[in-house]
């Protein structure tokens, strides 16, 4: 019991430290972004803002996270490799926020950062078998462990980056994912992972007041790719290591929103004969805006979806697959009814407005 209370104390301390550091350093980073030219100027219809806004705010999240981890977590080879890879990602993001680097160059640097983390011991060595009817409960990946892990890290890094299209969206979703892994880590008594996730969540929470609509600063690629990188590597340390079907499903539930949006974007672009990296205005958040939601409503909807998936991941870990499936179906049904009511009311308001002003 004392050990559990001590772990919760470290978790709370890590979260508060990272939050305070991010909260204090964000205005400084904002001034720095203006000075170095890291400013997002709206130049196409994918942008949801109508005036220049500084980016590179993810630097404040990084400062809060790094300081908190160095204070409260004992450095291991795996953690050191993750931090070094994270530094590479942050430096890449800073230059990208200033100079808008090419996609291929960024991909190569992201692979290098993932390789640093993998060679330090962050490897998906065993993958649970998704076929529940098979007698083999898990797959030993062997030499495939290295390319599979690198693909996972790079994919999640870019997935979080791709959903960074509305004020506070990527930061809030990353906060929910971090808190999900934090709760799961506490449930399975994995203290170090819980403290690291608390530090990441704290950094995001400290930055959110500046990033919520109307945003005063964007976290840019500096923040979105860093958050994706840390979530990807920590999912290897905290989730993939369980030799059960849970380990296959939980990371995909916890990161379900960015994974779905990225897969859907790639399929859509390839079907249209475009490059998978070609930017467009058909992401989930764009579609919600086109359906009639404003920015705050769209972000709230996606927060709720992410929280539902995170809650299902926690229930799956602690109570089993059947209860998690029942919870997911019930919440999806409630969400579908709520969305239908909103859209009907929204359409009715539009029709009433057209009748009043023909």
Automatic annotation (TrEMBL):
Main location: membrane
Residues given in the record as Mg(2+) binding sites: 161, 221
Membrane protein topology class: Multi-pass membrane protein
GO cellular component, one term: plasma membrane
UniProt key word Cell membrane: yes
Membrane-spanning segments: 12-33, 53-73, 79-95, 107-124, 144-162, 169-187, 193-210, 217-236, 242-267, 298-318, 324-343
Cell compartment(s), UniProt: Cell membrane
GO biological process: cell wall macromolecule biosynthetic process; cell wall organization; lipopolysaccharide biosynthetic process
CDD domains in alphabetical order: GT_WecA_like
Keywords assigned: Cell membrane, Magnesium, Membrane, Metal-binding, Transferase, Transmembrane, Transmembrane helix
A GO molecular function held by the record: metal ion binding
Name the record gives this protein: Undecaprenyl/decaprenyl-phosphate alpha-N-acetylglucosaminyl 1-phosphate transferase
Organism from which the protein derives: Candidatus Intestinimonas pullistercoris
């Amino acid at each position: 019991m004392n050990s559990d209370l001590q772990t919760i104390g470290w978790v709370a301390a890590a979260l508060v430290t990272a939050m305070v550091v991010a909260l204090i350093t964000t205005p400084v980073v904002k001034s720095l972004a203006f000075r170095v030219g890291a400013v997002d100027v709206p130049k196409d219809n994918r942008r949801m803002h109508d005036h220049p806004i500084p980016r590179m705010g993810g630097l404040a999240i990084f400062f809060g996270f790094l300081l908190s981890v160095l204070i409260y977590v004992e450095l291991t080879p795996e953690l050191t490799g993750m931090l070094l890879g994270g530094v590479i990602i942050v430096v890449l993001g800073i230059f990208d926020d200033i100079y808008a680097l090419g996609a291929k160059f960024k991909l190569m640097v992201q692979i290098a950062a993932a390789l640093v983390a993998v060679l330090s011991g962050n490897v998906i060595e065993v993958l649970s078998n998704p076929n529940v009817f098979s007698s083999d409960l898990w797959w030993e990946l062997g030499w495939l462990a290295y390319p599979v892990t690198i693909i996972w890290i790079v994919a999640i890094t870019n997935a979080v980056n791709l959903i960074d299209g509305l004020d506070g969206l990527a930061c809030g979703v990353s906060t929910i994912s971090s808190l999900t892994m934090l709760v799961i880590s506490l449930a399975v008594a994995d203290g170090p992972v819980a403290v690291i996730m608390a530090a990441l969540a704290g950094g995001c929470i400290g930055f959110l007041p500046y990033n919520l609509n109307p945003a005063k600063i964007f976290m840019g690629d500096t923040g979105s790719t860093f958050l994706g990188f840390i979530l990807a590597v920590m999912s290897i340390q905290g989730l993939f290591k369980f030799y059960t079907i849970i380990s296959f499903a939980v990371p995909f539930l916890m990161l379900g929103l960015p994974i779905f949006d990225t897969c859907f974007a790639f399929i859509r672009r390839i079907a249209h004969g475009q490059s998978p990296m070609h930017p467009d205005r058909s992401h989930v958040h764009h579609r919600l805006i086109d359906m009639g939601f404003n920015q705050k409503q769209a972000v709230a909807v996606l927060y709720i979806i992410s929280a539902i998936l995170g809650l299902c991941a926690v229930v799956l870990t602690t109570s089993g697959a059947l209860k998690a499936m029942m919870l997911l179906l019930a919440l999806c049904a409630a969400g579908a009814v709520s969305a239908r009511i909103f859209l009907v009311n929204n359409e009715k308001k539009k029709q009433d407005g057209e009748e009043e002003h023909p």
